[in-house]
Amino acid sequence: MTEPLLSIRDLKVEFSTRNGRVTALDGIDLDLMPGETLGIVGESGCGKSITALATMGLIPDPPGRIAGGRILFDGEDITHADARRLRSLRGADISMIFQEPMTSLNPVFTAGDQIAEAIMLHQQLGRAEANRKAVELLRTVGIPEPERRARSFPHELSGGMRQRVMIAMAISCRPRVLIADEPTTALDVTVQAQIFDLMRDIQKEFGVAIMLITHDMGAIAEMADRVAVMYAGRIVEKGSADAILDNPLHPYTRGLIDCIPVLGKAAGEQGRMPPLAEIPGVVPPLHLLGQGCAFADRCPLAFDRCRIETPILDGRSHGVACFATEMEAV
Amino acid sequence: MSMADATANSHAVEGARPLRDALIAYRRNKPALLGMLLLSAIIAFVIYGTFFFKGDPYEIVWAPQTPPGTDAAVPLGTDYLGRDIMRGLLKGGGPTLAVGAAAAIITLVIGISLGGIAGFFGGWIDDLLMRVTEFFQVLPALLFAMVVITLFSPSTLTTAIAIGVVLWPQTARLTRAEFLKIRELEYVTAARSIGARNGRIMWKVILPNALPPLVVSATLTVGVAILFQAGLSFLGLDDPNTMSWGLMIGTNRQYILDAWWPVTFPGIAIFLTVFAVSLVGDGLNDAFNPKLRGR
Asked: Using the 8-state DSSP alphabet, how is residue B201 labeled?
C-alpha cells in the first residue's frame, strides 16, 4: 500500500478567546494519498478551515496554537517546522485556494504579475521568463486570451476568472497537495461546475492530491474519492465517498445529505415539492462544548449515553463516531 | 453609454498598462490638472528665481514700504527696509519648496518604517513603537522643532530635519492603522500560502495597498512643512541668511498695519503652493487607485 502524502495524526488546535481557551480541533486523524481527492465536509465553525490552515502552518499565533498531534508531509514532520522550511513548502509543495476569489487577489497588481511573483518565489527565473510562464498557466486554467488577461487587474475579472487565476497561482510550482477551501462557494452554480471540471483536469494532468473543504454534499459527490465529515472540531464519519453517500451512518451525515435538494424528487405525486430538509439548531459555540457527543442536542437518535460519553471514531474503513448507529449495527 | 464608460470598457478588454492608465485617469481629473498646472508654474517661477535671476533679495533698492504698482522696477512694492518683494519671492521660493519636500520625505521614511513594522507585527513591538510615537506626539511641536534647530546651527537642512522629526508621528499612526486593517485581508493570507516572507508581504503586498491615504497625507505634509517653516521664520529661528517666503513674513510682521503687501504676497505664494500640492496629491491618489479610476 502506498504511503500517504499528507498525514495528520491526533491534531489538536487551541485558541485563547475571551471565553477562555477553546479547542478548535480535537484529535483529528486524516490521510491524503497521492493523486486522490479527500473531501472534508461540515457546517461553518466545524474546524474545516482550521484544518487547512494548520496544514499550511498558517494558524494565527497568538491567539491560536497547535496543542498536540503531528502533521507529516511525505514522511517529514512539519508540525513545528521553522519559518524558512514552511515558506519553502508553501506554494511549492502544498498550496491553497481560498473561498473568496474577490478578496484573495491583491487588488493593486495585475493577474499576470501575481502569478509571476508566485513563480519567482520558488524558482530561479527572470521576470520575463516568469511572465511568459504566467501567461502559459492562465492558458492552462482555461482563461481566454491569456496574454491580455495577464495584464488585467483583479477587479476587471469575473469571479470565476479570479478563481481560475487563484488556481493558476496555486499550481504554478506544481505542488503535490492542493488545499481548496470552499473554492466554489462564492461562485454561480454554472461557474462552480466549470471550476470543478478544471480541478479534475489539473489533477489528471499534474497528479496533485486535493483536499477539498466544503459544506456542500453535492460538491463531495462530484469530486471526492474519500470523505471525512467534521463536526465541532472532530471527525464524526470517515470513509469512501460512495460508502458515505449511499450509506451514511452518522445522523449528522444523514442530515447533510438530506439537505441536498433533488430536482424533481417526489414532485409528481401531489404536484408539490416536499419541504427541503434541515438539521435543527446550529453548531454549538466551542466554549460551550461539554461532556458527551457535541451533536447530541441536534440529534434525532440521541439517548442518555450520548450526553455523558464522547463517542470515538471506530477504526473501520467506513468509520463512524456514534453510539446510536453502533447500536443499530449490533 | 457615455464616452467615459466606453473608454473604461475598452481598457478593461485590452488589459491594463498601469502607468498609461493612471496618466489617462489623471488627465480626466480637472482639479488635479489645475493643481499640476499651478504647481508647474510655481516650480518654473522658483527655478527661474534660483538659477537665472541674478538680483540680491537683501539689497535695498527703493524707498521703504513702497506700495505695489508704484514703479515698474518694484512691481510688488518694497518692505520696511526698501527691499524688493518680487526679488524675495523669486529667491525665497527655492529654500521654501526644498524644506517642504525634504520634510515630507523624512516624515514618510520614518513614519512608514515605524508604522509599518508596528502594524504588521503587532504585540509588544507595536506597543513599544507606539509608545515612542506617542512620546514624540505629546511634545509641543513648535517647541520641539525649536529645540532641534537650536541644537544645531539654523540652516535649510536643519529646518527640514526639525520639521520632519516633529511631523512623522501622524504618518506612523496612519501607516499602522492601514497595515493593521490590510494584514487581516485574505490576499495577505494568500500571499503567505504561496510562501512569501514577511518583508515581501509588508512592502510588496500591504504597502502598495496602503499607499493611497499615505500619498495624500504626504502632500498635506508638504503643505504643513511649508507653513511650519513660515512659523519658525516668524519666530526668527530660520536661517536669516537664506531668504524664504516664511522669513519674509516673519521679518515684516511687525509692520503689517503700516504696509500689508510685504506679508501678503509671500502668504499668497505659500497658499498657492500648498493648494496646488494638495490638488496634485488628491489627483495622484485617484489616478493610482485602479478602483477609483473612471468614476
From this structure: I
Do B96 and B226 contact (CB within 8 A), yes or no? yes
Closest CA to B248 of B96, B98, B68: B96
Chain B interface includes A117 (CB < 8 A)? yes
For residue A232, which of A291, A303, A152, A170 has the smallest C-alpha distance? A291
Contact B187 A122 (CB under 8 A): no
- B290 chain-A contacts, CB cut-off 8 A: 107-108, 153, 155
pLDDT tens for chain B, 295 residues long, are 344 443 344 344 344 455 677 777 777 788 889 999 999 999 999 999 888 888 888 888 888 888 888 887 888 888 888 888 898 899 888 888 998 889 999 999 999 999 999 999 988 999 999 999 999 988 888 888 888 888 887 888 888 999 999 999 999 999 999 999 998 888 898 888 888 888 889 988 899 888 878 887 888 888 788 888 888 887 878 777 888 888 888 888 888 888 889 889 999 998 999 899 888 888 877 776 666 554 4
Best A106, A166, A174 member to test B by mutation, with max B CBs in 10 Å, is A106
Instruction: Answer whether 0.80 is exceeded by the pTM.
Output: no
- Asked if the Cβ–Cβ distance from A153 to B191 is below 8 Å, we say no
Strands in A215-307 per DSSP E: 226-231, 234-240
**Considering only CB atoms, which chain A residues are within 8 Å of B208?**
106, 108-109
Q: List, in sequence order, every beta strand (DSSP E) within B182-223.
A: none
**ipTM value:** 0.78
Q: Which of A259, A269, A200, A191 has its CA nearest to residue A42?
A: A259
Do β-strands A226-231 and A234-240 pair in parallel, antiparallel, or remain unpaired?
Answer: antiparallel
**Count of CB atoms situated within 10 Å of the CB of A267:** 12
- In angstroms, the CA B130 to CA B128 distance is 6
Please list, in sequence order, all residues whose beta carbon lies within 8 angstroms of the beta carbon of residue B26, skipping any fewer than 6 positions away: B32, B33, B36, B283, B284, B286, B287
Q: How far is CA B118 from CA A102, B103, B112, B211, in A?
A: 27, 22, 10, 16
